[in-house]
Amino acid sequence: TPIQNDLGEFFAMI
Amino acid sequence: MLEARLQTGALLKKVLEAIKELITDANFDCSDNGIALQAMDNSHVALVALLLRHDGFEPYRCDRSLALGVNLVSLSKVLRCAGNDDIITLKADDTADVLSLTFENTDNDRISEYELKLMDIDSEHLGIPDTTYEAVVQMSSAEFARICKDLQVLSDSVQIDVTKEGVKFGAKGELGSGAVTLKQNGNVDKEEEATLIELQQNVSLNFSLKYLVNFTKATPLASRVSLSMSSEVPLLVEYKMEAGYIRYYLAPKIGE
Q1: How many interface pairs between A and B have CB atoms less than 8 angstroms apart?
Q2: Chain B: which residues have CB within 8 Å of chain A?
Q3: What residues contact residue B127 under an 8 Å CB cut-off, 6+ apart?
Q4: Span B72-103, pLDDT tens digits
Q5: Complex-level ipTM beyond the 0.95 threshold
């Protein structure tokens, strides 16, 4: 099963 | 203070239905541009970005930017008290401890008024970079909803493959496998049902169907949906409304 990524890996927190 | 009057109150009801299962609390950021919301789901896998532009309201007044912290389940409960044809007016003063909602029927002989307590929400705002996507698919929103629901029978994940010929949604699970392919068909008579693909490069990505099915709760808001994809970046699912949009971002699944 593919692993679910976290959105935080892509978008920086402001 | 904020005063925003929405002729078609049903729009707000539909917007709440489209976001309330993904996120529980969120700030409605009100400015002279309109009402915006950005929030991530609890597991940090998906993000909702909503904009209701000022020109969708008549009148719209917001002298000072305000963040209205709202429990979305509570708001959707209150909105259930509004008739589908009601005109909805939202009001909040600068202290923003309550949101006032007024529902007027079309005959203007029944007016109901509610106040919803607001809360302080520390929102984690994400910076979403402008992205040029390798593949953008525009298709019927009802068709997208049907495909996600159908494939959920087979698996938790869907693989989306986009080529210039079409887009293929495939799922594999314990009971077997299934796939739905939509060919690019810009020439069909019914423009609303056409599948259109803008492609820089073929893409093949995996996503959680549970989230996609959740996104399709926005289907009543728009007849069309666009899916924007690039390798190893979040999928953008966008429903455009007359005066605004609802965008969902979903982190891809990777590896084995």
Answers
A1: 56
A2: 40, 44-47, 124-129, 156-157, 206, 208, 233-234, 249-256
A3: A11, A12, A13, A14
A4: 999 999 999 999 999 999 999 988 799 999 99
A5: no
